[in-house]
Design goal:
Layout lengths: L1 H22 L21 E3 L4 E3 L6 E5 L2 E6 L2 E5 L7 E3 L6 H4 L26
Antiparallel strand pairs: 1-2, 2-3, 3-4, 4-5, 5-6
């Protein structure tokens, strides 16, 4: 009976957690991680003086350092073993030194989500 209750509880909470994880997965530190999924491996270009690769054609700030993928977003670093994610938060102090000193020319400007302009509704006077 206890095992059956445990399984039902795990299924209920597991389904809810999975749905939330798809929206904004949490890292081990509790920070929301980006739900970035790059299905096709991007073209990577070597930054010669730094010895790392970046994805100039991607809309994301993706880098490859020693076979580990890094993603820069909102002033924070995330890492993954594949370009598809899932991404884990990396504290700045633990990020590779080469990424801490990355020249601005290799960091894409983040675009804020587009806000729809709302016009005030005109009320008809009677």
């Amino acid at each position: 009976m206890v095992l059956k209750s445990f399984i039902v509880t795990a299924l209920l909470f597991g389904a809810g957690a999975q749905g939330a994880a798809e929206k904004a997965p949490l890292s081990s530190c509790g920070s929301p991680c980006p739900a970035v999924r790059v299905s096709t491996r991007p073209r990577m270009v070597l930054i010669p003086r730094l010895g790392i690769y970046y994805a100039p054609d991607s809309q994301y700030n993706l880098y490859l350092v020693n076979k580990i993928w890094f993603y820069y977003y909102d002033g924070k670093w995330y890492r993954s073993h594949t370009h598809e994610g899932s991404w884990q938060y990396v504290p700045f102090s633990k990020a590779p030194e080469v990424l801490k000193n990355l020249p601005q020319e290799f960091i894409k400007q983040e675009k804020a989500p587009e806000k729809k302009e709302t016009k005030p509704s005109k009320k008809k006077k009677r």
